[in-house]
Amino acid sequence: MSGEPVPGSLFVYAPNKAAPVFFAVAFGASAVGHIWQCVRYKSFRLTGLHPVCCVLFTLGYILREIGAFNYIYSPPNLINFILCQVFIYVCPPLLELANYHVLGRIFYYVPHLAPLPPGRVLRIFGGLMGIVELLNALGVALAANPTSSQSTQKLGKYLTIVAIAIQLAIILAFGVMASIFHYRCTKTDVKTTKVFTSLRTLYTSMLLIFIRCIYRLVEHTGNTSVKLKDIEALRQLSPILRYEWFFYVFEATLMLINSVLWNVWSPGRYLPQNRSLHLATDGITEVMGQEEKDDRSLVFKVLNVVTFGIFFGQGHKSDSKKRNGSGSFEELRDYYPTVTGAQNS
Fold first, then answer.
1. What burial class does residue 39 get, using C-beta atoms within 10 Å of its C-beta: 0-12 exposed, 13-18 middle, 19+ buried?
2. How far apart are CA 186 and CA 113, in angstroms?
3. pLDDT tens-digit profile of 220-231?
4. What is the DSSP string of 286-324?
């Protein structure tokens, strides 16, 4: 990690051989924990992206360990390097999407204080993250190939910068919306710790992702044009590319902390499995709304799962409704009789 480039190295430097092993094992262990929690709390729909990302991270660091012994350019080594980069860099936007799943479920749990209809949270933010993921995957794939033309590498760089900039804007929008909701919960004296524990975990997770995005943005705004055989050109590269420790501190470590964070405070422990179960306006009583009938075909259900719940949803009429006079959303109209009964009892 001296920062001295190695001519012909796909990584620019001679990569560390021990660090990938640690992170592969750590993410693998975290994946086992997430899978167990998904089974234990029946929360695959809510937290299923976490084990998926941990498995991808594990594969990415296994490939990086292979690359640590085979880092000089050759066609097989190049394929290994590109796959390694894609598996590692494709996950953070998915983890951000997982946070929007959690925020939407929190809104379902306290619907009368939600600043946005709960059903729209994933569709709006998830749709935006879909764009980010597409740009990010293309950018990483193009920029990761040091043997491609300078114009191709620059295109990959610019696509990545656009993806990160959009991601940062979405994080800020998330912060504003979550803060409004948090303020309303505090002002109306919501007494359950389930909401506040989940919100604090969300804030911490989004902060980690935000710091990671800043690191990536700084990395790609510097000189990133790699010329494998030109030692002087390699020495002119951004220090973030020449020093491996930047990657392990701001990419690997931050994402591992994020994964362990959700292992410890899994939303499946705090939020109900059934999103029809929600808090009454007294901030204490849990009430059950009318069960939603899912009349979608099996194909639409499968497509909804593989698109992470963004598309092919149940298409409730509710999503086109607006907030009613009581401050709640009309999409939750089935809950009102139950809530009123709870308040009058």
1. exposed
2. 10
3. 887 777 777 888
4. EEE-PPPP----HHHHHHHHHTTTSSS----GGGG--B-
pLDDT tens, residue by residue, 5-42: 999 999 999 999 999 999 999 999 999 999 999 999 99
**Average pLDDT of the residues of the chain:** 84
Both tokens of 116, joined, read 């946005």
Give the length of the chain.
345
Half-sphere exposure in the Cβ direction for 229 (13 Å, CA): 2
Angle between helices 91-109 and 254-264 (to 10 degrees): 30
